[in-house]
Structures are given as C-alpha cells and as structure tokens.
Design a protein that fits this description.
With 351 residues, the chain is an alpha/beta fold. It contains 17 helices and twelve strands. The protein folds into two domains: 130 residues, 3-Layer(aba) Sandwich (Oxidized Rhodanese, domain 1); 207 residues, 3-Layer(aba) Sandwich (Rossmann fold). Strands 1-5-4-2-3 form a five-stranded parallel beta sheet, with helices on both faces. A five-stranded parallel beta sheet has the order 7-8-6-11-12, with helices on both faces. The longest helix is centred in the N-terminal third of the chain and has 24 residues. It is globular, with a radius of gyration of 25 Å.
C-alpha cells in the first residue's frame, strides 16, 4: 500500500483517526516531548545515535550511513516482530521522527511494503512543535474561562477534580505540570515534565474543549513550579471572571495536612523545602518553623505558614493580577467535607 505523507496541521487535527502514533526518535528525544499518545519505536537509540554521529565526524559520512543502516534495519525488524506481527492489514499508524526524514522514513517504508496503511508526518516533530506553539497563541482566545480563586489550602484542586467528574470542562494546570503550585508544591520523587511536554499537554487539553461551554481553571501565577504557563493563556485567565472558594483556617490546615501527608511522614524533606523561604521570611522565622516541625508540631507550622506567609502573598497577587477578583461571580463557602465539596461543585456547574 502506498505511503502517505501528511502535513502537520492535518495530522494533529486527525490524531484520533490513527490506530497508533509512533515516534521513531531515540528514547531521550521521546522523553523530552512527543505527540499525544505516541509510543516509542526508536530507529536508533541514544547510544546508537552517538555512535553514528561520531563515525560521521571522525571517519566519513559514508561509513556512518552504512553503520546507521545496519542498526536501523535491526531495530525496525525487532519493532515489527514485537509490536506489529499480529496487526491486521487495515492497521493505520502515523509515524514521525525529528524532521520526517530517514529514521521514520525507514520504518514507514517497511511497514508500507508489508501492506499497512502508513501515514508519515511531514516535517516530523519539528513541524508538530511549530503547530503547537502557533495553536497556544490562538486557542486561549476561543474560550470563556472561569477562574477559581481561593487562598492556599481552600481546596481549589479538589474542586477542579470534582467538577471534572461532573462533566464540567476543567483545565487543571497543576495536574498537567505535576506540581501543586507553591514552594512546597513539588511532590518528592515525582519530577515535573519539561517545558515542551507541558506545553503539549496544555495544547492537548485545550484542543478537546467545546468553545460553547465555559472552562474552569485555577488562579495560577505565570509559573507552576519551574514551568511557564503559555503567555496568551495567562493573559486570558487574568482578564476572566473569578469564583471565590472559601474554607475556614482550621479546615485549610487539615486539608493541607491530608494533601501533603508526605511532608508529615518525612519531616526532613519538609524542613529542606522550607529553606526556600529564607530570602522572603528570614533565617530566624524559617529556623523556628523547622524546629517546630522536628518537634512534631507540623500543624502549628502549617497554620503559621498560611497566616504569615501564603495568605498575604496570595491576596496581594490576586488583587494585582486578576481583574475579576474584587467582584467575583460567586463566593462559595464549604466546610471540608465531601458533601460540602459536592454542593460547591454543583453550584459552580450551574453558573
């Protein structure tokens, strides 16, 4: 069956039509970023790419191409034997590499010769990346956002999760960034994705939304951990109406103790993370928090963090950056219980 080359804008618009999206780049390239749902069939792995590159520079391009052909043929055969041997004749994968050239072309040629309905992404990952960057400039303007505002520990993430369960359109930037949005927000042992992959995740979420329905998103700053929120998206968020979520101070302390239970279990990691606040709060204050945490008074530390640090910083930031903060669409109180959260979510879903 003839091999079909497809432009990037058409390919990403039709992703759901393909039976598989196959990334023929090396494992490190794949880990940095890839098309949504892509699986990795490296034509050359990282070590093999380095070997061929060295021969290209130190011996000759011809010698390097011969080496690359041997390695690629071996890998393509292994992929087909492992992954494609039981695929039906009408199996229709989309393939790509960095520029849509030799690596994906080698794999696509063999699969097409077998008789599969192979599509090759024109321009490869490079053109996909350009399409994502362009889309992130345009997509945010299509949506009517509602911004959930609330001081730290008020349950914004829990609310977004419940709203999503109810079928409301939710853009959970902290979930996409694998970060909880504060100095203490990085989950130990669970790193954030890279910037490119984060942007792919944001684009993938936005492209699935219905512009006729509102999108709920939390009042994030320009960065979620180490990752930058796309500029046009943060601009659109800051100009959008707000919904205030309110929970009592003791309720917020309890919620944070539950959501950050890994810090309760690992006091030293908690204390190390508090070091990041020394510039803002001073050594004496941070030393006091660390001493209290090591003495088992974590709840006391959390309460003081909220009252003396997070609440003033948050309120100042919201007033400065979010146009709708002072006059929200609604101010919704809840008491920390599942029933109360559900009632809050139900109310927001009807706004």
């Amino acid at each position: 069956m003839p091999l079909v080359t497809i432009p990037a804008d058409q390919a990403i618009a039709r992703l759901a039509e393909f039976d598989a999206v196959i990334d023929a780049r090396s494992e490190s390239e794949y880990a940095e970023d890839r098309l949504p749902g892509a699986i990795n069939w490296p034509t050359l792995n990282d070590a093999e790419r380095a070997l061929v590159g060295t021969e290209y520079k130190q011996v000759s391009p011809f010698t390097a191409r011969k080496r690359g052909a041997v390695l690629a043929a071996r890998n393509v055969a292994a992929h087909i034997e492992r992954e494609a041997i039981d695929k039906p004749k009408d199996w229709a994968p989309l393939l790509y590499c960095w520029r849509g050239g030799q690596r994906s072309g080698s794999l696509a040629t063999v699969l097409s010769a077998i008789g599969f309905r192979v599509h090759l992404l024109e321009g490869g990952y490079r053109e996909y990346r350009r399409a994502v960057i362009s889309a992130l400039e345009q997509l945010p303007q299509r949506f009517d956002f509602r911004i959930v505002c609330g001081v730290t520990g008020s349950g914004k993430s829990r609310l977004l999760q419940r709203l999503a369960e109810l079928g409301v359109q939710v853009l959970d930037l902290e979930l996409l960034a694998n970060h909880r949005g504060s100095v203490l927000g990085l989950v130990p042992g669970s790193p954030q994705p890279g910037q490119k992959q984060f942007e792919s995740r944001v684009w993938d979420a936005l492209r699935r939304f219905d512009p006729a329905r509102p999108v709920i998103v939390e009042s994030e700053s320009k960065k979620v951990g180490d990752l930058r929120v796309p500029e046009k998206l943060i601009e659109r968020m800051r100009a959008s109406p707000c919904i205030r979520l309110e929970l009592s101070l003791e309720g917020r302390v309890q919620l944070l103790i539950e959501d950050y239970d890994f810090f309760v279990r690992d006091t030293e990691t908690f204390c190390q993370r508090l070091d990041a606040l020394r510039v803002l709060r001073g050594h004496e204050v941070v030393n006091g928090w660390q001493e209290a945490a090591r003495a088992g008074r974590t709840r006391e530390v959390v309460r003081d963090l909220l009252v003396s640090h997070y609440d003033p910083v948050y309120l100042q930031s919201m007033k400065r950056n979010f146009a709708g903060f002072g006059q929200p669409l609604a101010a919704i109180e809840w008491d920390g219980s599942a029933a109360s959260l559900d009632a809050a979510a139900q109310r927001i879903a009807t706004l």
